[in-house]
Batch of 4 targets.
Target 1
Amino acid sequence: MAVTILFLGPLRDLAGGASRDVAAPLDWSGLLDNVGEDLADVLKGERIHVALSGKVLIDKAALYAADGDEVALLPPVSGG
């Protein structure tokens, strides 16, 4: 029983890899605990968004991922 966390863009470098499997179920607090203190501080910022199985959450603190779900951490978009 696992949830896959995907780290996109510069979050990948902070996480030390593109993805990580963690035990299900996973809520916001559990996500922060699983990514480490430095990355957790970044994720708390309002410019970082969270998608659950392809749908961006309006309130990332309402995250609840079950077995087989994918959680994507989305950094701010830049460019023109």
Target 2
Amino acid sequence: MSIRGSLRTMCIEDLFDWIDRRHLVGHLSVERGDAAHSFYFDQGAVTAASSNVPGEHLGQLLMSRGLVDEKVLSEAFSVQAETGVFLGKVLLMSEALDAESLREVLEIKLREAIWDVLSWQGGHFEFDEGPRGGSEFEIRVPLRTTLDLGKLQVQRSRAIRKLIPHDHLRFFVTDFFAVQDPESSERKRNQSARLVDCVERGLTLNQIILEHHGRRFQVTSQLAELIEKGALSLDRRSELRDSGQEDSSMDMEAAARSRAAGGNKVEALELSTRALQQDPENQSLQALHKELQRSLFAELSRELLGRFRVPKLLLKREELADMDLSDNERYLVGRIDGHWDLLSLIRIAPIREVDALLTFKRLHERGIIEI
């Protein structure tokens, strides 16, 4: 059996409920905008999940919980590329990670993937019934329990979005004593201290999320808690200013197709990304966006990853501090030390691979790095 449709017609919560009540075995893919998730179900349990959202990748989850560092993860990715072995198994074989910790993180990965799509308003889905192939590390997370918890997560996410309405906001500390709550666990105090360090460095919300390996809900939830107890406040000077009327998604899609036909795939991708933000359920636009990503990734991989390359900074750190850099540029520049090679930097970054390659290319063209 195969079924596909719109999440406007059948909302994602009803779709999960249908799969759970019928104890179906099969694969579900859901898409909205430039985000895509894939799930496997087996008689009331989620057994696997994948996503193109970097913060939900296993490596980023492991680093965010302090279970591996960037060096260990980079070495594991190299072994995985050579052998095709599941990343988690590589880490187990090298004894960089124990089985209990891996299982815990994989269960978190499954639950958070479900919670993420529960917040979607619309999108498209396709469900194919049938058993999954063999797995190197079997995980089963009860779907019903995950859904019940997910409803609470969605409510919290919406409340947080009202409190912290966009990703370009900055914050400032209003009460240092409230940050280090003596009644909190040591781990939570450490997390708060790390967040405050980012705040004091003047980072925006999006930059803080990158520093925390793309863990959006976890970062925004912790920031909201600190705001609610008076430890932090929003810096209203960083509110977005209205830059004028945005073109319609239809106009941007037409412009993207025109740029792509003229060979300017970089501008075409930027336009299609902006158009998808306005019209995330436009399937023809999604198809264009995917094709541009695939094509650009192939071209940039040949250009930049055809041989071993180590990027080097051409400017001093203090010069970079005053430059107008995008969030991705600032994040990747901060990891260039003359030792990390280009491929390793791309693998460990909480940024989509094509976006990381485009960022390195722009940094090179701007004379900021040498490749």
Target 3
Amino acid sequence: MKKDIHPDYKPVIFHDVTCNKSFLLSSTVKTTETMKYEDGNEYPVYKVETSSESHPFYTGKGRIETKEGRVAKFKKKYSKK
């Protein structure tokens, strides 16, 4: 393999700012900030707004709309015309 063509693959903390949770994963993302992780070591940090800890689909707090609700909403909207 050629040298110096591959990105630097290193451990990075992905910090969900919505629920203040952090995940340590390996990534090639470039960051300038660092943060101390639970293991006591300092790693580069990448801030995200949504992760599996805060996404409504994974947390079960999402609103599920039934087909009847959507059809009724459509009929109500366009029945006036």
Target 4
Amino acid sequence: MKEIDLGGQKVGKNNPPFIIAEMSGNHNQSLEKALQIVDAAAETGANALKIQTYTADTMTLDEAKNEFMITDAKSPWKNKTLYELYQEAYTPWEWHEPIFRRARELGIIPFSTPFDETAVDFLETLNTPFYKIASFENNDIPLIKKVASTGKPMIISTGMATAAELDETVKAAREVGCKDLILLKCTSTYPASPNNTNIITIPHMKDLFQVQVGLSDHTLGTGVAVASVSLGATVIEKHLTLDRRDGGVDSTFSMEPSEMESLVEETKRAWQAMGMVHYGPTNKEKSSLQFRRSIYVSKDVKKGDIFTEDNLRVIRPGYGLSPKYYEKILGKQVKNDMKSGTPLTWDNL
């Protein structure tokens, strides 16, 4: 699978995981807090900061009918209308430019998730380097085509989508000109539970669609993300908040800065540990070979004596014959006088 350039950073199996800090609505309608989240994301070592570009009116209708209500008892947004949720969570469009500017000043890549065609046009004026499609929009083929027509890399979350639906999405993006595409395995529950995350899908999805695959992770902690790297995930996306106690629409399943820093470090370690298929001592292990077990004379013996379990032992260090020869050597005649603590060689038989 070819490497993909995301805002000047290479993404692929030969590079550490590309970590995306998702701001979402954790700014709680404060530009000052939004900029503080940018600062925190940069300090954690994340590669990119993602925001979302929509308004309540571009997302839904201002209706209180049952189908526009969030009724799931486990949802952090229970009893809100969709319109109310998006009014609370959206990032004002006039904030985008200062957020992008701050991120670039700090060396972290800013980009966004557009939710309709007007958002794409707006983000083009900010020169966003690539785009993200959210899980709930991965079936919006007109939006997919609009984004793909920019020619920029696309990251698409796959929550809820069947393989057939993803096939339609991927084909639509490619037909319109998207050459660089990354899919993110995603479970669209908030928070998500590890036992409902099914990250074993990652290598299957990679083979099925011939694209790089990552993880958009709504679970708590770092375990699922770290495990996904061992399955080939090249991109990890996690929500970031300054402090979960601040509240907000996504705070309950967002990482705090110290946790995001740990995510960056631990996913990199997981990537480093994968290495390649290898047997035998590594270069670093070669100096340890001397401490393996081998056959030693454990009591003084004279020429003509017989090697027995009483005068031979398999012990550390490893300067004698391999232990696999121990049973064959028992009963053999001693060729020359030997002191206890002498490593056995074929010349001693």
